[in-house]
Amino acid sequence: MFIQHKQLKNLNIPAEKVEHLHSVSSSVQLAFAGYPPQLCRAYLLKISGGDKVLIVVAFYLAESQCSIFFVPKFGELPAEDADPVYEEGYSFVESMGFVLTETDYHLLSRSQKQAYWTALPICQPAKKKEPEESATTIKANEELKKLRLQSRKSLGRFFASM
Length: 162
What we know:
Helix content: 25-40%
Distance between the termini: 69 Å
Number of helices: 3
Order of helices and strands: EEEEEEEHEHH
Radius of gyration: 24 Å
Number of domains: 2
Largest sheet: 8 strands, antiparallel
Mean pLDDT: 85
């Protein structure tokens, strides 16, 4: 079972620690809590650190320009137990409508891995974007301003009559 890792905003790890990487060839429309529905890309990673491995499922939200990460509930695990959890991550991503493809990342040279890794959006810090106001919000704000002005005038007439 995978849970969201809310503190993780980007993967700031060396390229050589990424043992295996799957990604999607096309984006899928998804909605995550706190974000509007938008096109997302998905990644499945096996990150090694000595005799421990961490499986990470990453989603890059195109409109919000940020990443959301999911990790196994139990966190890191011994390298020999990683394959079934990687398969579980694969199923998790595909259950959301994505089709994962092999990147052959593990076959690249060290310099090619570095270039590939640093170009991925999940490795970049989130780009802050101002939320866009919809036409409905703008209209509601204008009506609210009119009501405030009308209320002040009415309150002024009330005090003047006293």
